[in-house]
Write a structure and sequence with these properties.
9% strand; 245 residues; globular; five-stranded mixed beta sheet; Protein-Tyrosine Phosphatase, Chain A; alpha/beta; 12 helices
């Protein structure tokens, strides 16, 4: 965990054991909740950590709420789930969630659906991370779903075991993130509040199912990312950045 004032869910992707020995390197990639919540000292901590590029996965509507800021860091915006929320698809997701007893199974299904629907956007995000001229941070709002999926792809592609990747995903403590607490508090009614509580979970088994599903469908994470438009050179760059030299 990194202490960047204003954010509550910032983690370096270094230190994870690799399947064939060693561990992922630090200061390659960082995952975070929304950087718009950073204080001035938080931004300073980000800069001092060596961040050269921010890859922002949020919708355009989420960016529009940001206060202006001026820091010496490149920002690349890749709206991972499309430019704007799809209301009809959102209702379909709610119906699937309400009809599913297992929250973990719902996340497994929905994440695989996101990866399929928005494949090109996942490719664009990974290309932006591969091309960063130094340490890169990737973030969305809570740093859970969009960021969680991108972080999982990075770690698995580097050679981290599925169980360990799922452990990193499950380490997100939504209760610590003010923007997410406010989202739950703003529910329309009791049913909506219950739905939002379920959506706040980070079940380990869900990410195990997602990565297993990717590998069943595409052979490897690299196979999926290649289909998403990530070149062989960038795939190698992504892998080497997280592996000790």
């Amino acid at each position: 965990m990194l202490d960047w004032d204003g954010c509550a869910n910032v983690r370096d992707l270094g230190g994870h054991p690799l399947e064939h020995g060693g561990q992922t390197t630090y200061r390659a990639y960082v995952r975070a909740d929304s950087l718009r919540n950073l204080s001035a000292s938080g931004w300073q901590a980000l800069v001092e950590y060596g961040i050269a590029r921010v890859v922002d996965l949020r919708w355009h509507e989420e960016l529009a709420l940001d206060e202006p800021y001026d820091v010496p860091v490149e920002v690349v915006h890749v709206p991972l789930f499309g430019a704007s929320p799809d209301a009809e698809y959102g209702r379909y997701l709610d119906e699937r969630l309400d009809a599913t007893e297992s929250t973990a199974e719902y996340f497994r299904w929905s994440y695989l659906d996101f990866l399929d629907r928005h494949k090109a956007n996942f490719g664009a995000a990974m290309n932006a991370l591969a091309d960063a001229d130094g340490t890169a941070v990737v973030h969305c709002m809570a740093g859970k779903d969009r960021t969680g999926l991108v972080a999982a792809l990075l770690l698995r592609h580097a050679g981290v075991g599925i169980e360990q990747v799922a452990h990193d995903y499950a380490a997100t403590d939504i209760a610590r993130i003010p923007v997410h607490r406010a989202w739950i508090a703003g529910a329309r009614d009791e049913a909506d509040a219950a739905r939002r509580e379920r959506l706040s979970a980070t079940p380990h088994d869900a990410m195990v199912g997602v990565l297993t599903g990717i590998e069943e469908r595409h052979g490897t994470v690299a196979g999926y990312l290649g289909e998403a438009g990530v070149t062989a050179e960038r795939l190698e760059e992504l892998r080497l950045r997280l592996r000790p030299s």
